[in-house]
Amino acid sequence: MEQPKRELRRLERKYRRLERQTKWERIKPALPFYIALILFAAGLTALLLWRGRRQPDPMPDAALEAYILDVGQGDAILLRSQGHTALIDAGDTESGMKLVQKLSPLVAGKPDFAVLSHPHADHMGGMPQVLARFGAGRLYQPEIPEALRPAVYSYDSLLKTVQEQQIPLTVPACGETVSFGAAEVTFLSADGEHFDDLNDCSLCCLVTCGKQRFLFCGDLEKAGEQALLSAGLIPPVTVLKAAHHGSASSTSEAFLAAAKPQVAVISVGAQNDYGHPAEQTLARLHRAGAAVYRTDLCGSIRLATDGEQLIVQTNALK
What pLDDT score was predicted for residue 30? Predict the structure, then answer.
């Protein structure tokens, strides 16, 4: 009996060896595929981990930073220079608290000043919440003809907050300049009494740092642009914020010919109901040779300069 048992065990071992060899023969042809799949998965994991890390600042000692903040269909711009800060517009009411959260890590102390380009809801709606949280040394706004003064809650709320926070409210003269840090802001405006659209009353900010100039013009449209051009107030700039979210009625050929921007930024909501930015405007910017960045595609955009060079970072705030 012992002999048959040993033979049986030998046959079982032989069968298992054959079975293992058979499995190996089946797997062997597909081995390169499995190795490639493992390497791809490892590479993808490494890439995701790398992208998730905070990337080093390409210009940590920037003399001026301008953040075009993604607030959907609206405008909100933060300026920073050597510990000084300033805000231009603040999106709509719904974006107010989100804007406060975005600004919190960037604003230390009270901003030097805030600017309301013009009192439309998508530019001033979030301003009361921002001013209530951070304050401001002063609020600048354009001259608003009585016939165009908005009788809306958001504007009344802003004026009430300014009063409660004891923030001086100023209408700057055209050409008036305010220094902050290594930069200065020059206010540009035309006589609003000649306009029948509040957009054309927009208070423009020409920000200069060394050789670099940035131009922010709220929702200025063709009539307002022409008034500034006729007065010879538009110089060549490095960066232009395309007015009125890239609408067809702004950023005219004549305006671009004077401004000659190398970079254009458009603050616009994704899939908005207005069709912004207009294809005509994008075509004009392309013909002018400007590199175009949009908040609906790029998120918040950081523009930084040391006075000589300019860098552009997209998705600057997570």
Answer: 58
